[in-house]
Amino acid sequence: MSALKPLADRVLIEPIPAEEKTASGIIIPDAAKEKPLKGTVIAAGNGKKDEPMTVKEGDTVLFGQYSGTEIKIEGKTYLIMKEADIYGVFQA
Amino acid sequence: MSALKPLADRVLIEPIPAEEKTASGIIIPDAAKEKPLKGTVIAAGNGKKDEPMTVKEGDTVLFGQYSGTEIKIEGKTYLIMKEADIYGVFQA
Amino acid sequence: MSALKPLADRVLIEPIPAEEKTASGIIIPDAAKEKPLKGTVIAAGNGKKDEPMTVKEGDTVLFGQYSGTEIKIEGKTYLIMKEADIYGVFQA
Amino acid sequence: MSALKPLADRVLIEPIPAEEKTASGIIIPDAAKEKPLKGTVIAAGNGKKDEPMTVKEGDTVLFGQYSGTEIKIEGKTYLIMKEADIYGVFQA
Amino acid sequence: MSALKPLADRVLIEPIPAEEKTASGIIIPDAAKEKPLKGTVIAAGNGKKDEPMTVKEGDTVLFGQYSGTEIKIEGKTYLIMKEADIYGVFQA
Amino acid sequence: MSALKPLADRVLIEPIPAEEKTASGIIIPDAAKEKPLKGTVIAAGNGKKDEPMTVKEGDTVLFGQYSGTEIKIEGKTYLIMKEADIYGVFQA
Amino acid sequence: MSALKPLADRVLIEPIPAEEKTASGIIIPDAAKEKPLKGTVIAAGNGKKDEPMTVKEGDTVLFGQYSGTEIKIEGKTYLIMKEADIYGVFQA
Hints:
Seven copies of one chain form a homoheptamer. Chain A is mainly beta. The first copy, chain A, has a domain at about 10-15 and about 35-90: 10 Kd Chaperonin, Protein Cpn10, Chain O (Roll), CATH 2.30.33.40. Helix content of chain A is about 0%, strand content about 45%. Chain A has no helices and eight strands. The first copy, chain A, has strands at about 5, 10-15, 25, 35-45, 60-65, 70-75, 75-80, 85-90. A six-stranded antiparallel beta sheet of chain A has the order 6-7-2-4-5-8, with no helix packed on it. In chain A, strand 6 and strand 7 (about 75-80) form a beta hairpin. Chain A is globular. The two termini of chain A are about 20 Å apart. Chains in contact: A-B, A-G, B-C, C-D, D-E, E-F, F-G. Chains A and B meet through strand 3 and strand 8 of A and strand 1 and strand 6 of B. Strand 3 (about 25) of chain F pairs antiparallel with strand 6 of chain G, so a sheet runs across the interface.
């Protein structure tokens, strides 16, 4: 369980390094204007009024390169961002 | 099935190269201020509260030249954008 | 029937050249800050939630000079714009 | 009847030249930052959802100097603007 | 009765010169960033949907120095502004 | 009773000089980016539709240094601001 | 009990110095673009219409480095900010 419970529509994400080539074969383009990044959802907020969350703990998600705020918990770097900044969820 | 499920009102699109001349005879104008582009819908989100999606997998759509964010899946380039950035759907 | 079905509150319009003098006698002013233009509605979207469309296929409409995005279908130039960018409809 | 039916909350207005001194004695101030102008409502739209129109054909209205877009119908200059750009209606 | 009926949430105000020292003893500060001004409500609109008006004809009101648009009726200068630009009403 | 009744969500406040050291021991920091100030509520508006007021006459409140508009009533300086510009209320 | 009751969706927070290494092992990154900070909730407002508060007195929260306004009560520095500026709550 995460030490930090995100508020409202925020999500705590552990980023997956871009050089790592995953089973699903995603490669981040070299020269794109903006490089989307992948990460694992560590914890999600409870959503806002009438707006439940879609992502859940364990999901692998894609998000914008400049999305969210970086924090460190026990030496590891995480990102905290709003669910609206997440582009999509990778399917198992 | 797409490896990536777009969130909310987002759509995953495989762009169709502009030089390709399709059956419906669309030609992108040379000197337009903004060149609309065509693409195929690969996957669509579930929409937002009270706003179901209109486009669906397989639709050929027209969208703005600068719309969306480029990502690569298994070597192919895709775009992820909000449905509101799509101008229209080509009819079969 | 149009090859392109506009999404939501968008309208596909075939512009009427400004020099054409119509039966209703509209003349576009020479030195206006912004020159409104006339066009024929080729196809209209289905509107947005609780906002049905007012214009329909065949309507002659007036719109701002810089409204919409230019596209070409089978060699002809069209405009795609939101209904809110249309000033009014000419009456038969 | 006007040849042009304004859409939604738009109003078609025939401006009254500022030098014309009317019965109600309105004089437009010389050195104001913005000179309000008078005009006659030629046609009004049907309003927006849950927002019916207040002005009607024949009303004499006051509006901002830079409001609306100029168009010509049969050689006469008109303005088309949103009702929200109209300051008030002169009473008979 | 005023010759001009303000639309929606607008109010027609006859400004009270700042040098006039009233019974209630209001003095406009000399060096304030913005000088609030007093005026008499001459006519008020009917309000907007679900937002009835608070001020009424005859009220003495306080408003921002740069609020509203100046107009002249029969040689007198008035201001027309939205009720939201009025700070408060002086009590009799 | 105040001579001025604030409109809607506005509040009339008599500021308490920053050098005054109160019983509750509040001291305004010297070098803060923005210095919050204390004041006494003299009069409050009736709120906006579905948004009743929280503060009431006599409350000691904290607000931003640049909030509100300064006015003088009978030689005393007051501030008029929206309730949303008030940070909190001091408890007795 | 806090001397200051925050209004609406505001929260009064006592910041925890960044150098302090807590039991949960959070370390603020050195060279992050923006350094999130930790603090203890001293008092929370009653929320806004249909938006109850999530955080409560005693919660340890994470928030942006530039969030809120600094105030001093009895010599101690506090921050007052909107709940929406809080990223998350640390779990016991």
